[in-house]
Amino acid sequence: MKNPVPKSLSGRSWTIIFASFVVLLTTLGILLFEGSKNTVAMTLDGKKMVVNTHADNIKELLDELDVPLTSKDYLYPKASTKIRDDLSVIWKQANMVHIVKDNEKKTIWTTADTVAGLLKEQKIVLKEQDQISPSPQTAIKNKMNVKLDISFHLTYVDGGRAQKVWTTSTTVADFLTQQGIKLNQYDRVEPTLTEKISENGVVNVIRVEKVTDVVEEPVQFAVVTKKDENLQKGQEKVIAPGKQGRVSKQYEVMLENGKEVSRKLINEQNILQKQDKIVAVGTKDLALQVSRGETSTEKEFYVTATAYTAYCNGCSGRTATGLNLRANPNMKVIAVDPRIIPLGTKVYVEGYGYAVAADTGGAIKGYIVDLLMPSHADAYRWGRKKVKLTVLD
To answer: pLDDT digit string (tens) for 113-135?
Structure first.
């Protein structure tokens, strides 16, 4: 009987069987190779993955994964740790961060996730009044700038009222802007806007106002004298009484913190014209002259009258008859020469009024009398004049 399978087909079968055997061996080898790998749980910059590896240690494993490990990165366990099955590896890449604090720059490397974590890592504690940019919740990025403005106490004086405030400003101008303080046209600041401020410094805002003040003021009249030949020497007669005028004055007034510091007259206007007082002064020679030492039987005669006060130089304040002039400055008393007018005599003096002869004086000789006045100003106004004196008793 003949073989139903051709000889050529039988050769192919052997070839196929051999090839299948090779594939089987390769597959078994691959399975054995893969099965001998260790399974490692990786957390790379927060991303989790599972890898199978024949790496001997963690450093070799990171090299397989093209992870750029540096000495500043966070790695757990350490790079020399042997790989074993079910090992967990955590790696965080370090970022370069510039911390700018009070205008001083410091560069650090950190594996913190957020700005808040960075502050904690650097042991930086901020007060409520301190300022930070960007915010603490911001994620850390490589080459990031973190700016810290540390606040300090400052005394702020506005219009004379002082208060303590916190600030992070460096200059007076920055401080005013930060506090929302507005300056008016004439206000000024001490120190100046460009000056730097420091802890426990003082910023003084002086509120300056320019206002207009209108006031009415009196204008004093003058006393004009005119000679009159019909009047005897020493006599005076008022021809026209004086009358005060009034003037309106407009001032530019500067106020600092509500108090006046300067006043400038900018306008003046007469409201009421003044009227000068006109007085006639006699120039007629006396018809009656009484010589010294002559005994007069007349009740009226002319004397030279001067004036004094209870406080004149050399005065004791008491008269020759014992009257206390300082206790009674308004008394009508005259000093006389007792040879002409006896002490105690009541008289009437023209322009002075009723008086009593109660005092004497070293310079009072003959027909000279000294009239008591209540003040030095009154004595100066009286001066020295010829007047008629009438003896009443």
So the answer is: 899 998 898 888 888 888 899 99
38-92: CATH topology is Ubiquitin-like (UB roll) (3.10.20)
Q: What is the torsion angle, in degrees rounded to the nearest 10, for the CA atoms of residue 265, residue 266, residue 272 and residue 276? A: 50
Q: In the chain, list all ranges with CATH 2.40.40.10.
A: 286-391
Q: How far is Cα 306 from Cα 292, in angstroms, rounded to an integer?
A: 18
Q: 221: closest CA among 280, 265, 279, 282?
A: 279
Q: How is domain 211-281 classified at the CATH fold level? A: Resuscitation-promoting factor rpfb fold (2.20.230)
Give the Å distances, CA to CA, from 276 to 216, 223, 237, 311.
Answer: 20, 6, 14, 33
* CA–CA distance, 159 with 333 (Å, rounded to integer): 60
Total residue count of the chain as it appears in this document: 393
The DSSP 8-state label assigned to residue 172 in this structure reads: H
Sequence-distant (6+) residues with CB within 8 A of 9 are none
CB-based contact 224:276 (threshold 8 Å)? yes
210: CB partners within 8 A, 6+ apart: 186, 252, 253, 254, 255
Residue 19 has pLDDT above 90, yes or no: no
CA angle 128, 191, 200 (to 5 degrees): 35
In CATH, the number for domain 95-149 is 3.10.20.90
For the chain, residues classed under CATH 3.10.20.90 are 38-92, 95-149, 152-206
Q: Indicate the SS3 state at residue 388.
A: strand
Indicate yes or no: pTM above 0.85.
no
Q: What is the CATH class of 152-206?
A: alpha beta
What are 105-116's pLDDT values in tens digits?
889 899 888 999
Whether the bond into 77 is cis, omega within 30 of 0: yes
Tell me the fold of 286-391. Answer: Barwin-like endoglucanases (2.40.40)
